[in-house]
Design a protein that fits this description.
With 244 residues, the chain is an alpha+beta fold. It is built from 7 helices and 8 strands; from the N terminus they run E-E-E-H-E-E-H-H-H-H-E-E-E-H-H. A 5-stranded mixed barrel has the order 1-2-3-5-4. Strands 7-6-8 form a 3-stranded antiparallel sheet.
């Protein structure tokens, strides 16, 4: 059976006999791995490289996919020309590949990633803010977002902690034992960080075009996301994360 779909290349892996396995995030079928025999040059070969969105004709049998034809829709080549953009976009690809299950349609994530690449390509500074927003929206779209209900809507004298194991933010009074005597991983978080994370989830990426976080706030959000993804989602440091 032959199917057609738009897709974004998440990863390319060399296989035997000059073939490649291309991990695609498709609009219609979710994440799939498809074989390709395209050589290293030409427009069709470009459609098998990361940071590319293309239209694919794919032959599907019972347990495998093979790319028959590919037509590039958009190559985000400007990302590869800027090391700061490249590192953050590569992390986004790697994180999405880890979190998205095979053959589970997630068209909203496909649209999110398309928007992220378009904005990253044009962004001239503070790429971290855009990456943080992408991370939060990806977690939210896939049902992994930490629970922030009722936290930080109005600042008070309580403290905020992230119960990483439970996947939720909690308010605690100053004399309350944060871990309740248990061995749960608790991370202290400011109300400001919770507010920014909530803003990321509630607003489209396009609204962040001119938003830039202060270094201290960015460092706090990076630590929260890194800890949450590592311990709650069981995803240790990714290869691309070493360069961030």
């Amino acid at each position: 059976m032959r199917v057609e779909t738009e897709a974004i290349v998440l990863k390319q892996t060399k296989a035997a006999n000059g073939r490649k396995m291309i991990t695609l995030l498709s609009r219609n079928y979710g994440k799939i791995s498809a074989g390709s025999s395209y050589g290293p040059r030409g427009k069709a070969a470009l459609a098998t490289r990361p940071f590319t969105r293309a239209r694919y004709q794919i032959y599907k049998n019972r347990d495998s996919y093979n790319i028959d034809r590919a037509e590039v829709i958009k190559s985000y080549y400007a990302i590869g020309e800027d090391i700061e953009k490249y590192i953050r976009a590569a992390y986004a690809l790697e994180l999405a590949d880890k979190l998205i299950e095979e053959e589970q349609p997630v068209p909203e994530v496909y649209e999110l990633m398309s928007t992220f690449f378009s904005l990253m390509e044009k962004r001239n500074k503070d790429q971290d803010t855009l990456l943080f927003a992408f991370q939060m929206k990806l977690l939210d779209r896939l049902g992994y977002c930490p629970d922030m209900d009722g936290i930080g809507e109005e600042e008070n004298e309580a403290s905020v902690v992230l119960d990483v194991d439970g996947g939720r933010f909690l308010e605690v009074s100053g004399n309350e034992d944060n871990d309740g005597g248990n061995s749960r991983l608790i991370l202290e978080v400011s109300f400001g960080i919770v507010s920014v994370l909530r803003y990321f989830v509630r607003n489209p990426l396009e609204r962040l075009e001119k938003l830039a976080l202060e270094p201290e706030m960015a460092a706090g959000i990076r630590e929260v996301l890194r800890t949450y993804i590592k311990y709650h989602l069981q995803i240790d440091r990714l290869k691309s994360e070493e360069l961030l």
